[in-house]
Amino acid sequence: MLRKNNNRSIQSLLKSDPGRSHSMTRSSPRWRFDASRTPLLAEEWRAMSADAATETAQEAIDALFSGAVVNPSERQPALHMALRAAHPAEAAPADDAETIERSRRRLLDLASRLHDGRAGIRTLLHIGIGGSDLGPRLVADALDSGTSAIDVEWLTTLDADRVQRLQQTLDPATTGMVVASKSFSTVETLTQAAHWRDWLGGRPDRIWAATASPEKAAEFGVLPENVLAFPSWTGGRFSLWSSVGLSAAALIGPERWQQLLRGAAQADRAVREAVGDSLAFAMAGCIDALVRRFEFATLGVVSYEPRLRLLAEYLQQLVMESLGKSTGLDGASLCRPTSPLVFGGAGTDLQHSLFQALHQGTTRHPMLLLGTSSTDSAMPGWRHEQLAHLLGQASALVNGRDDEQRERSLPGNNPVMLMLARALDPETVGELLATFEHAVYLLGIGWDINPFDQWGVEEGKRLAVGFRQALEGESSSPDPSLDALVEWIRAQGDGKTGQ
């Protein structure tokens, strides 16, 4: 039995097996995944493919793609693959496929008119939170080539100061709004949307809704022809591929948007046709071993491709909201770890902050480092600088450093997974994000949990309603232990002083 955070020397494993970096690598048409700098033995890595070939694993993949109920607590399938399929009718029930096709046609047409300026809009406000923001914003940041006629302002949390600053610079006559909300009942989203709707001065032709609740969008005042609906089985953190991606599609252009979908669909085919040999399974297998076998509680995601700087933020929701569960599918309490805490950001930025603790702190944290090997930039030397830092950190995290001055010594033995792409184009981004989705699903199956619900999130929202009423003086707070704080807040609002 290995001790927590294991004592296997990764450096020794690399020295004893010179071919390790080749034998523990999995590749797809666009990405290369290297697990050689983890504490997994080469034979354990090889056994992972055999584990994936089990009847249970294949049945789980078949269930996902066939539209079976894989989200039992909400009695729903999870057919987000159909949202990016070339022919949705081959991947979803007829009624849902028709909804997807109709919404996609309207998205592409609208994205084209916004992108080239025919819509007469210069600034598009994208109002959404969680899955209605993270995926589209990541895609926009990664793939915006600067050719669009519009700018997009991403509005998530209730930030009154930012809203006031924006209003001083924007013109209602050239501003449009996309309200992205599956339920069309999210308080933060609707509060902002109502404010901006009024600011736009009664121009419903400049307001669009991406939602699974078209009737609620209509009640809000969105014109029927401006509602881009998607099926109710579309989970929020898997909704990028639906009309929720409208703002990103308008920014990068409809052609590049369709290339993004193609890359994701190729990842779908890879995991369906070759579970054990897929990139998704390789990623899932490594994370499973690090979390369950070696009992690491964290996962760092650090991008040395600046255009993927938001990947860690995106994966915080995808991984932690999906896998952060303590009850199994059978209703029993789980006694083993589930979701790691995901952290990270842009590589060279983080080297000036949290990397110090990674190198010389008292705990080890598995890291996933990403980069791209080629560039179409006018400054190709900068890409080599990024990659040099990626390789330098990958080496130092594993090998550490011996020094006569103890304060200069680095313990090393920090697990590192590496992902490198040839270039960052729309299909590469699409494949990456879909691969992560499938890896999370495979982890959920292996850990016997439902990766498609999020009741913890819902409970916090439920309690917020009661606290809002308490702050307005309409009722007592739902938690008496916080009554003193509620009273203090109310006193400040009344202009009173108190301790």
Defining key terms:
19 helices, 499 residues, alpha/beta
Brief write-up:
By secondary structure, the chain is an alpha/beta fold.
Structure, described:
This protein has 499 residues and is an alpha/beta fold. Helix 16 (380-399) links the parallel strand 10 (367-372) and strand 11 (416-421). It has helices at 10-16, 20-23, 42-52, 55-66, 94-115, 134-143, 160-169, 187-199, 214-220, 246-252, 254-273, 279-293, 311-323, 347-350, 355-360, 380-399, 426-447, 455-471, 483-493, and strands at residues 25-27, 31-37, 123-127, 151-155, 175-180, 207-211, 227-229, 298-303, 341-346, 367-372, 416-421. Helix 5 (94-115) crosses helix 10 (246-252) and helix 10 crosses helix 11. The model has no long low-confidence stretch (mean pLDDT 92). Helices cover 46% and strands 12% of the residues. The strands form two sheets. It has a six-stranded mixed beta sheet, with helices on both faces. It has a five-stranded parallel beta sheet with strand order 4-3-5-6-7, with helices on both faces. It has three domains: 10-53 and 275-453, 3-Layer(aba) Sandwich (Rossmann fold), CATH 3.40.50; 80-258, Rossmann fold, CATH 3.40.50.10490; 457-493.
Q: What fold name stands as the CATH topology of the largest domain? A: Rossmann fold
Give the structural class: alpha/beta
The helicity comes to 40-55%
The number of helical elements comes to 19
Number of domains: 3
Q: What is the gyration radius calculated from CA atoms?
A: 24 Å
CATH architecture of the largest domain: 3-Layer(aba) Sandwich
User: How would you spell out the order of helices and strands?
Assistant: HHEEHHHEHEHEHEHEHHHEHEHHEHEHHH
Q: Report strand %.
A: 5-15%
CATH class type of the largest domain: Alpha Beta
For the largest sheet, list the strands in their spatial order: 1-2-11-10-8-9
- Principal-axes geometry comes out as globular
CATH homologous superfamily annotation of the largest domain: Glucose-6-phosphate isomerase like protein, domain 1
Mean pLDDT: 92
Number of strand elements:
11
Quaternary organization? single chain
- In this structure, how is the largest beta sheet organized? 6 strands, mixed
Q: Whole-Å distance between the termini?
A: 54 Å
